[in-house]
Model the fold of this input.
Amino acid sequence: MKLASLLGHAAELLQQVRSSERPADSIIDIFFRSHKYLGSHDRRFIAEATYGTLRHLRKCEHLLLNALGSHTEGIIPEDGFLLLLTTYLIALDDRRTKVTVEDLKPILKSVKLKSHLAGILEAMDPSQTLPEGDAAEPIALKYSFPDWMIERFIKQYGETETEALCRSLNEQAPVTLRVNELKSSVETCQKALKAEGIDTLTTDLSPIGLHLTKRTNVFQLQAFRDGLFEVQDEGSQLLPLLIDPKPTAKVLDACAGAGGKTLELAALMKNRGEVMATDVHGSRLEELRKRTRRAGVSNVRIQQVEDIGDLAGKHAAHFDLVLVDAPCSGIGTLRRNPGMKWMVTEETVKEVSEKQFHILSSSASLVREGGMLAYATCTLFREENEEVVERFLQSHPEFSLPASPPRSMRFDATKHFDGKYVRFFPHREGTDGFFVAVLKKQGIRSVQPTGT
Done:
């Protein structure tokens, strides 16, 4: 397909993504399903151009405005998205795609812009000096983040680490698989994938993970249909390994969603014990049902709930382990979902932290005495992490944080433990950003009055 046509498709897709509140990967999947005539190379170009523009949107807008100069009046949205994509491809994409006047003229709608197009393209210069400001603004513009987000990062991590974090969040995440040990081993799975022409490398931290050396649609592979693996970030794999449930345990996955961690817990427990998976979204649980059949999982019970507190009557003090993989802003997954940068607001963070506290508090009564309550998010903000846990501990003195990392036979978390919590970062561990707090429930000892 000619570059002009590819640019037109990519601009159309970018506009759809920016006009929707749904995740970019969902919009892109729908787009490609409705454009089945696109070949694999065309799809890759369109997807990568769209994701790249989303990752660097703020900087693209800055460079484009400078390039347009006085020609910004009356630009229609279609032309704006097309020029944003062009800015990314010319100025920021490592491939430095050569986009010419001849490529853009047939699909650009503004006659005025067509007449100044050569000068505009020439002015898309990535080396131009960025404006100075306080500590947050230059970093926010350089790495294309909202100012408020950078301000929070700097407050939590300092300027140097904030830059490293932002740089890593702008990188494309690897495709990572979790081997299903109910049906395979890492070595066996690698051989099965190799037989289908897929090369992999073992992950550094997870003992059951594989990285693809080249991106491909793994859902079409026979090894996937046979249930030998699931697609799952390495950081996500580490959470069930960290809490390491015994095969005889009673476990609740309170916010199971489509069940990536549910399936891993079931496999770690060797299909024994009891795993109860709940969620408020029936469509996600239906996906989990399909996945359990493919994975050969038989120890999972699935139940839709309106609120996790609905379980309190029948399941009070029932579970050895309750996992609250809480809904969050998802900022730790920006490598996969770059459009979330522009969807999450300070108000979003505030609202979701209240929801997290409610879910965590409602889960407390479901844990037996001596049992564990694990709270996890894939975000990087204190308000959704430490502050939720600290608030919870103040109102639930029967729970406490460990003085050492959780003990696990499969994963040593010592290097990732800060004295209270376990954390993973894309710029340190190469995983999505994760926060984990493992709390233990003990009976509250009443204070006996002293004798006189």
